[in-house]
Specification:
There is one protein chain. The protein is α+β, with helices and mostly antiparallel strands and about 70 residues long. The protein has one domain. It has one helix and four strands; from the N terminus they run ββββα. Strands 1-2-3-4 form a four-stranded antiparallel sheet. Strand 2 and strand 3 form a beta hairpin. The protein is flat. It starts with 9 loop residues before the first strand and ends with a helix. The mean pLDDT is about 80.
């Protein structure tokens, strides 16, 4: 079950920390959102991670680049 987004239809991208943090793509806008907290606990927090999947991938590639 996906969290409720009032800005568009969500598609699941992935999870981190045993599912307490999940990432969602809003299909209509291309925005990527992070949701913190378990579904149904009534305390989920939403945050815009990136304005597009391409921007998120670029950010991750810089972060994951090996350091010399």
């Amino acid at each position: 079950m996906s969290p409720t987004f009032h800005r568009g239809r969500p598609a699941f991208l992935g999870a981190f920390e045993d599912g307490v943090i999940t990432y969602w793509l809003l299909i209509d806008s291309g925005e990527v959102w992070m949701v913190r907290g378990y579904e149904g606990d009534g305390d989920q927090q939403y945050g815009l991670v990136s304005s597009s999947v391409a921007a998120l991938q670029k950010m991750q590639s810089v972060y994951m680049k090996p350091r010399r």
